[in-house]
Task: structure prediction
Amino acid sequence: MSKTSKTIVRREATAPEQSRADALALASKALAAMTDEEDAAVTAAAKADPDAQPTDVVSRRKAGRPPLARPKRAVQLRLDADVLDRFKADGDGWQTRMNDALRKAVGL
Result:
């Protein structure tokens, strides 16, 4: 066998030992059996963990970047082909370079 060959191991799919409903029922039963002292200890340990956050804080967080104070707007603009070709000739970032040139032309 050469150093570049790879061994492929195939496993047959096995059914999970318990269904989701069974797991939820078991968790609910364990939660109901928990004493107030155990609950207080678990809660204190979770609050002391800096990586743990209450689910209500996590669920309110919006995904993605925060909104910009002055977001750019999309416009339709007709330009001469040679002007557009000149900006595109320098590669990626041509729209930013064109925006910079326009800002300079209007004194911003």
